[in-house]
Amino acid sequence: MQLSQLTIRDFRNLRNVKIDPSPGINLIFGKNASGKTSILESIYYLSHLRSFRTPYLTDIINHEARFLQLFARAENQQKKSIPIGIKRSRQKLEVRANQQAIKRVADITSLLPVLAIHPDSYRLITGSPTQRRQYLDWGVFHVEHGFFEAWQRYKKALTQRNAAIRSGQDKKYCQLWDAELDHAAISIDELRQRYFQNLTPYMNQLITAFFPGQDIRVEYKRGWKENESLLEYLRQNYDRDKKRGMTQAGPHRADIQISVDGKSAQTGISRGQQKTLVALLKLAQVKQFTATDIRHCILLYDDLAAELDDEHRCQILSVLEQMPIQLFLTAIEPQQIDTSHWEDRKMFHVEQGIVEAF
Ligand SMILES: Nc1ncnc2c1ncn2[C@@H]1O[C@H](COP(=O)(O)OP(=O)(O)OP(=O)(O)O)[C@@H](O)[C@H]1O
Ligand SMILES: [Mg+2]
After folding, report:
1. Which residue from 10, 15, 27, 36 has its CB within 8 A of the most atoms of ligand 1, so it is best to mutate?
2. How confident is the model at residue 71 (pLDDT cuts 50, 70, 90)?
3. Which of 24, 58, 194, 245 has the highest CB neighbour number within 10 Å of its CB?
4. Strands 326-331 and 298-301
5. For residue 13, which ligand has an atom nearest its CA?
6. Nearest-5° Cα angle at 106, 12 to 55
7. Concatenated DSSP letters for 40-109?
8. What's the confidence (pLDDT) of residue 174?
9. CA 48 to ligand 1 center in whole angstroms
10. Which domains does the chain have, with CATH numbers?
């Protein structure tokens, strides 16, 4: 899918914006605080129904408005255009796609695969495992069918087991969910493993090109011991789980470990290197996605020029050029990004929340 039309109303400082993006590269430029990141954030919101900058709704609805609205036309490979509409007040969310009400986030996410790289993305390396699981599961969700259902089953059983443990139910009752957890965990782990295996060559190819001579390893950790079934863990560690008030192992504790020359990437490399590495991990996902899926994918890249030095910026741009994706980039000055290699390109100038095709 790619966006052929986008209308933004009362999303941060964007009171009323209407653009017809190019199917190739879209360069959004303007001064600090003009509203560039907010445009990318609104596209991300269309797909995820949440922001990449804040968990708070009041941050993104314009301070003077009661609700925000987004309308878009998403075009598929056959040029069929699907209208998508979102209205979000502080109390209520309404989502429609193709004239139908959408109830689950997953339905809108799968319709519109969107990935974002932004100045806080380095937290994928320095932050909690949750962020790395989100990264992994973006791909598993879009590429591996059956993941969403397995995850829903697992989450439900986990919530019930944890509630039983906390409310002091007897052991037999708490263990009622162990088999279901084990069963769902096996599916989740298999799908994550398969996806990760398919992703690895794309990661390695990019990492070798950007970090020559460095030994960078990215490993998937499933969330419980390799040589033990989750059922065994749950049975043997019941007392420990009870003491802590929650189930301490399983796919909800999965992680990705990243090391550079044997040291953890969390502390062993510079912030700039972390940013480059995260960009590569995400670009690898886009590459893997476009190689296996006929759907188009949308990549949002915020502040590329401010984030990387000239050499890395040019290198990243040449990777992006070869990708059959719709791209939204932001920069302060248009000349910071050379878009001349793209056949389909548009530029948009933003000033105080007003956006004009340039
Ligand atoms: N809920 C809101 N209502 C109104 N204005 C808001 C709201 N949230 C943020 N803003 C304002 O929107 C403006 C645009 O912010 P944004 O982060 O999109 O700018 P930017 O162009 O990406 O800037 P930079 O170049 O510094 O990254 C800022 O001035 C910010 O204060
Ligand atoms: Mg910005």
Report:
1. 36
2. very high
3. 24
4. parallel
5. 1
6. 35
7. HHHHHHHHHSS-SS-S-HHHHB-TT-SEEEEEEEEE-TT--EEEEEEEEESS-EEEEETTEE---HHHHH
8. 85
9. 20
10. 1-113+295-358 (3.40.50.300)
Report yes or no: 313 and 58 within 8 Å, Cβ to Cβ.
Answer: no
Q: Which of 15, 38, 301, 349 to mutate to test the pocket of ligand 1 (most atoms within 8 A of CB)?
A: 38
Does 145 score more than 90 pLDDT? no
Residues 6+ apart with CB under 8 A from 12: 35, 38, 41, 59, 60, 62, 353
332 φ, ψ (degrees, to nearest 5) = -75, -50
What's the gap in Å between 332 CA and the centre of ligand 2? 9
Question: What's the gap in Å between 122 CA and the centre of ligand 1?
Answer: 21
CA of 29 to the centre of ligand 1 (A): 13
pLDDT in tens, 203-254: 999 999 999 999 999 999 999 999 999 999 999 999 999 999 999 999 999 9
